[in-house]
């Protein structure tokens, strides 16, 4: 069983890592697919996001990190997978996840979306919230894997030095 866990991962949080670790136990092979979205400005480049994900998942032998652009269903075909995994935090995710799952199945009938319920402690954790806290100098280490938190702190320090 091959599954794909797609997302922006800008940056990957403890919540994302929890979903990756739990999915890796459910499937034979998991591809974490980082969206390279040319229309959306991200804090981290796609290369940085892929690199960080590789570091934080190095203990998981059946997890692979890749980037994709364009439609997720086209990537699914290329990866020979029909299973999409997404984390489901709280009701605020409901409309968005339902819409994506329905659109993806409309585009590719065989595709199944599995929503994994996030651990309670990560229910309200998001990359956007982490970026906001980090931007204003707040402590984000509790929300992020160590490698990601170090990277982010460094990135904001460098941009402050430039100003
Ligand atoms: O982490 P995110 O930003 O919630 O992830 C969203 C993602 C990358 C899964 C979604 O935007 C996506 O699949 N984009 C690729 C374009 C696509 O296939 N769109 C149609 C389905 S919504």
Secondary-structure map:
Layout: E1 2-7, H1 14-26, E2 29-35, H2 46-56, E3 63-68, H3 72-78, E4 83-88, H4 94-107, E5 112-117, H5 127-135, H6 146-162
Parallel strand pairs: 1-2, 1-4, 2-3, 4-5
The structure holds 4'-phosphopantetheine.
4'-phosphopantetheine binds at residues 6-8, 35, 71-72, 100, 103-104.
Ligands in the model, by name, code or SMILES, are: 4'-phosphopantetheine
Low-pLDDT stretches are none
Numbering strands along the chain, what is their spatial order in the largest sheet?
A: 3-2-1-4-5
Largest sheet: 5 strands, parallel
Strand content: 15-25%
SSE run: EHEHEHEHEHH
Number of helices: 6
Q: Overall 3D geometry?
A: globular
In round numbers, the mean pLDDT is: 94
Q: So what's the oligomer here?
A: single chain
Distance from N terminus to C terminus (CA atoms, Å) equals: 49 Å
Number of strands: 5
Q: What share of residues is helical?
A: 40-55%
Structural class: alpha/beta
Radius of gyration: 16 Å
Question: What would you say this structure looks like, in words?
Answer:
Helices cover 44% and strands 19% of the residues. It has helices spanning 14-26, 46-56, 72-78, 94-107, 127-135, 146-162; strands spanning 2-7, 29-35, 63-68, 83-88, 112-117. The termini are far apart. Bound molecules: 4'-phosphopantetheine.
Outline:
The chain is an alpha/beta fold and 163 residues long. The protein has helices at 14-26, 46-56, 72-78, 94-107, 127-135, 146-162; strands at 2-7, 29-35, 63-68, 83-88, 112-117.
